Amino acid sequence: MFDTKPYEARMSAAVAHFQEELKRVRTGRAHPSMLDSVQVEAYGQKMPLNQVANVTAAEPQLLTITPFNPSNIQVIAAGIRQDQSLGLNPSDDGRVIRVPIPPLTEERRKLLVKQTSEKVEAARITLRNVRQDALKEAKRRKEAKAVSEDDLKTIEKSIDASIASFNAQLDASFKEKEKDILTL
């Protein structure tokens, strides 16, 4: 019999990746995961920010970064400034780095919704590719007489049901994020 579990696992991974991508989209409120993409040159190599400092959202419009080693303050601030996609300007007082999160303009909010919808489409394409792979494998097995015609139809229905379920998850995540972005 044909096992759809590996394909469902790939679909689940695609949805999980999409949800991780959504965390990086700014909503106008400070969230520590906004800085997950920041790499810092510390101890002679590039490291993720969360490995050299503690990041907290002290206020809705302010991130506070406390370095584990105070000598890394300058490289952390530089790392945040270098990540142009964030558009943030950190300031430090010698012990703590404060990153004010500027409010989003209406135009910027609409642009973020558009970018997010592009991420949704990319995730859907990934799901369709997994579906195609699964159907190709099922048809190959049918031609090899490993599965019957009826089994093939059952497999197709199962895969299509999985795709519908994962697409619904994508839609729900997108609607929630869209509401977050557009809320002032």
UniProtKB/TrEMBL annotation:
<keyword id="KW-0648">Protein biosynthesis</keyword>
<dbReference type="GO" id="GO:0043023">
    <property type="term" value="F:ribosomal large subunit binding"/>
</dbReference>
<feature type="domain" description="Ribosome recycling factor">
    <location>
        <begin position="18"/>
        <end position="182"/>
    </location>
</feature>
<dbReference type="Pfam" id="PF01765">
    <property type="entry name" value="RRF"/>
</dbReference>
<dbReference type="InterPro" id="IPR023584">
    <property type="entry name" value="Ribosome_recyc_fac_dom"/>
</dbReference>
<comment type="similarity">
    <text>Belongs to the RRF family.</text>
</comment>
<comment type="function">
    <text>Responsible for the release of ribosomes from messenger RNA at the termination of protein biosynthesis. May increase the efficiency of translation by recycling ribosomes from one round of translation to another.</text>
</comment>
<dbReference type="GO" id="GO:0005737">
    <property type="term" value="C:cytoplasm"/>
</dbReference>
<dbReference type="InterPro" id="IPR002661">
    <property type="entry name" value="Ribosome_recyc_fac"/>
</dbReference>
<dbReference type="GO" id="GO:0006415">
    <property type="term" value="P:translational termination"/>
</dbReference>
<dbReference type="InterPro" id="IPR036191">
    <property type="entry name" value="RRF_sf"/>
</dbReference>
<protein>
    <recommendedName>
        <fullName>Ribosome-recycling factor</fullName>
    </recommendedName>
</protein>
<keyword id="KW-0963">Cytoplasm</keyword>
